[in-house]
Amino acid sequence: MNPEVEQMYEALKAKLSKIVPDVELRYKAEIAVEINALKRQRNAVILGHNYMEPALFNSVPDFTGDSLDLSRKAAQTDKDVIVFCGVKFMAETAKILNPTKTVLLPSNKAGCSLAESITADDVRLLRQRFPGVPVVSYVNTYADVKAESDICCTSSNAVAVVESLKADTVIFLPDEYLARNVARETGKHIIFPTPLPVGEGPGVRVESDLDYQLIGWRGRCEVHEKFTVRDIEAVRAQFPDVVVLAHPECSPEVTAAADFSGSTNAMIRYVQQSNAPRYLVLTECAMGDNIAAANPDKEMLRLCMVRCPHMNMITMEETRDALKYNRYIIEVPEEIRLRAYRAVERMIQIG
After folding, report:
1. Cα 348 to Cα 3: distance, rounded to the nearest angstrom
2. Which partner for 43 in 19, 80, 116, 244 could form a disulfide, CB atoms 3.0-4.6 Å apart?
3. In which element (H, E) is residue 342 found?
4. Does 212 share its domain with 119?
């Protein structure tokens, strides 16, 4: 075995031997060495989201983290090429912040159910329906939606972003459950306006007579919406001392039944800094593997109903080929990028 491959294999084995079969580690070690060589040749940086599969997450990224963390890293990089091991809206965010750099997404099929749930036209219609109300868009949206927004947020700073606006009413898009969780935490009454009847102009009905402080949208993450309170109850019945952590994209009923709710980075920190006998992490299940690898002395339970099909498109092979064949290049029209940049930059400044 090539010495560099052997070194990579041993490093992966030390972290992942209890999680990933040895035959896979040997195979992935060879690809990781190829990727690192290409990364040097292309003067590239690789950003790896917390939801990446364990062998990729623990080998080739220069930086790992949640979407806010990686947005900051994208804004600061001096490399010529950014490879975003995440999904399309994340790569778009990197391009918004780095217009002169080449941004590559390893798979052109890595989308997002939340990003697909709303369009720029939807935002414009909401603005007409609720004139003067500021718009907060979750970072899990495409660039044209960000461009129609006043500010973006992530799950880690959603409450801070809403409170920073100091507005009586805020439009919060597009995640229904995150919006409900923000409403509960801020004490705001939330409504989900029904679509206008066909033929009724968008500016005709202004719902000023309703009591509301937060206006939501009915988008959902296809992974997080699958977790239920019954799941938590079943696990607690078997493991009464388990600590349950839930992502804010889970329903308010699930986050209320959990012991802790926070962003992916917040959940990682919680496990690192606490000493519970065992943990159950309700989010994309690859992250549970990555937390287990980083905390070998702590017991992680599994409730892996589904991997995110979009995150699962980002493989070691696709990451290698992105650098090898300069694919798939992310472009954002400049007029959209400039307006989206303002919303993203405001999010980063709040932190």
Report:
1. 41
2. 80
3. helix 334-350
4. yes
CB 33 within 8 A of CB 5: yes
pLDDT in tens, 321-332: 999 999 999 999
The predicted structure's pLDDT at residue 305: 65
Does 306 reside within a domain? Answer: no
Whether 291 is covered by a domain: the verdict is: yes
Domain CATH for 85: 3.40.50.10800
* Residues 48 and 144 both lie in one domain: no
**Which residue, among 84, 138, 77, 99, has the nearest Cα to 335 in the 3D structure?**
99
Q: How many domains does the chain have?
A: 3
First-to-last C-alpha distance (Å) of the chain: 45
pTM of the model: 0.91
What pLDDT score was predicted for residue 201?
47
Residues 119 and 164 in one domain: yes
Strand 170-173 and strand 135-138: pairing?
parallel
Residues 62 and 128 grouped into a single domain: no
Structural domain for 208, as ranges: 114-220+334-350
310 pLDDT band, cuts 50/70/90, is: very high
Give the tens place of pLDDT for each residue, 77-88. Answer: 999 999 999 999
Phi and psi, residue 305, nearest 5°: -75, -35
DSSP per residue over 224-285, as a string? Answer: GGG--HHHHHHHHHH-TTEEEEE-TTS-HHHHHHSSEE--HHHHHHHHHH---SEEEEES-H
Task: For residues 339 and 346, give the distance between their C-alpha atoms in angstroms, rounded to a whole number.
Answer: 11
How many residues in total does the chain contain?
351
Asked whether residue 52 falls in the same domain as residue 89, the answer is yes
Residues 168-206 have pLDDT tens digits of 999 999 999 999 999 999 999 999 987 654 444 444 344
Same domain as 202, residue 258: no
